């Protein structure tokens, strides 16, 4: 959360608190949405660069709009995959 502005953090916590089991279950979808957002950049990096990027992602200048878009994408992922027990099975 330190990688976001205070207003963005408040917006995220508002969503976490409104979701059933918000932080424990919804947070994984927020992380997945972040990884999908930066997927192209991350795939072009080596391991050390990825670790550096994830420790300092370019999200500090994000406003509430970008966070709302991220939360919307996370919610979409949750709706698609949360009740699909075999979505990770091969």
Notes on the protein architecture:
The structure is a single chain. By secondary structure, the chain is mostly helical. Helices cover 68% and strands 0% of the residues. The protein contains 5 helices and no strands. Helix 1 crosses helix 2, helix 1 runs parallel beside helix 5 and helix 2 crosses helix 5. The chain starts with 5 loop residues before the first helix and ends in a 9-residue tail after the last helix.
Keywords:
single chain; 90 residues; mainly alpha; 5 helices; 68% helix
Tell me briefly what this model is:
The protein is 68% helix and 0% strand. The protein has 90 residues and is mainly alpha-helical.
* Helix/sheet category: mainly alpha
Which percent band covers the strand fraction?
under 5%
Q: Report the radius of gyration as a whole number of Å.
A: 14 Å
User: Whole-Å distance between the termini?
Assistant: 33 Å
Helix content: 55-70%
Average pLDDT works out at 88
Run of helices and strands = HHHHH
Instruction: Give the number of DSSP strands.
Output: 0
Poorly predicted residue ranges:
none
Shape: globular
